Amino acid sequence: MDRSRLPQLAIFATVAASGGFRGAAKELGIAPSAVSHAISSLEQSLGVRLLARTTRSVAVTEEGALLLKRLRPALGEIDLALDAVKEANNRVAGNLRLSVPPFAAHWLLGPRLAAFSEAYPGVTLELRVEEPFNDIVATGVDAGMRLGESLEPDMIAVRMSDAISASIVATPAYFENHAVPRHPRDLLDHLCIRRRFSSGRVYRWEFEKDGEEIVLDVNGPLILGDDRLVVEAVLGGAGVAFLLQHMAPEAIAQGRLRRVLEDWCAPFPGVYLYYPSRRQMRPALRAFIDFFKFTI
After folding, report:
1. In CA terms, which of 117, 198, 237, 293 is 20 to 30 Å from 106?
2. What is the pLDDT of residues 240-271, one digit of tens each?
3. Count of CA atoms in the C-beta half-sphere (13 A) of 228
4. Quick check: is 77 in a domain?
């Protein structure tokens, strides 16, 4: 292996992740011309085109994607090695990268991030807020957080929250003009605020009672791509929303939102942090788990 190519490979991975030369240059702290030169030199040495360039965009070619598939885990291991040096003598320090879904980032972690940074000033915590269940090894992150029902069996999982209940809610004013639903299928006659995930899938509302499971494709005038927008819309009286319990507890407690169909809202498994079993527990990750994990 020509180890002199390592800087160029790292620059290539950064360009692919940032979507362009300027973004990569900004992240790496070098000139865009240096990024361009490194990519051109790497392509020339390999004899293949890694990036397709236009005046407006940069896209990874098929050959580039093949290289990235192997390159990202390797660069991730190099980062781990460097962080391990920083964490010599078990000093809690270094970079910690997590893949976290939006609801966990905003409602579970967000309120305590400042306290974590104050407790562990040597740790640089990067939260990648993303909905898809990504391969954390391939994408170069240390751990991920997801609902327990979504975990892969080959991962070590640590419980980070209690079980999470859903709430079907609308404003009291809405229910003054619309019949209160007594059964989940009554929601088909309501204005429901739907949620589209980044994958393109619109969430189908799930219910369970006494062993009976119902999944509904509800209808309504709004399809939103962000949980906070859903909360704002339902508080504004736009219709009925399906919320996880962390999303608007104060509004429910204060009576600004009214819950219905509570007996049909079975709890979801709690949020879990997961990481590959083949990796040793790093001090920074252990500190994060101890700080945020659920305790009975």
Report:
1. 237
2. 999 988 889 899 999 999 999 999 998 888 88
3. 6
4. no
CB 72 within 8 A of CB 138: yes
Model pLDDT, residue 222: 97
Rounded CA gap, 263 and 190, in Å?
A: 19
Count of CA atoms in the C-beta half-sphere (13 A) of 201? 6
CA distance 287 to 116: 9
Cα atoms in the 13 Å half-sphere on the side-chain side of 126: 8
How many independent structural domains does the chain possess? 3
Angle in degrees, 0-180, between the axes of helices 21-28 and 6-18, rounded to the nearest 10 = 120
183 and 198 assigned to the same domain: yes
Q: What is the pTM of this model?
A: 0.63
- pLDDT given at position 86: 61
Both 129 and 158 in one domain: the answer is yes
Q: Using alpha carbons only, what angle is made at residue 93 by residues 90 and 98, rounded to the nearest 5 degrees?
A: 115
CATH number of the domain within which 131 lies: 3.40.190.10
Summarised one tens digit per residue, pLDDT across range 165-211 is 899 999 999 999 999 999 999 999 999 999 998 888 899 999 999 98
Q: Which of 1, 2, 27 is nearest to 13 (CA)?
A: 27
Q: What are phi and psi for residue 186, nearest 5 degrees?
A: -65, -20
Q: Which of 3, 16, 32, 22 is nearest to 67 (CA)?
A: 16
Q: How many CA atoms lie within 13 A of 96 on its CB side?
A: 24
Q: Which residues of the chain have pLDDT under 50?
A: 89, 296
Rg (CA), the chain: 23
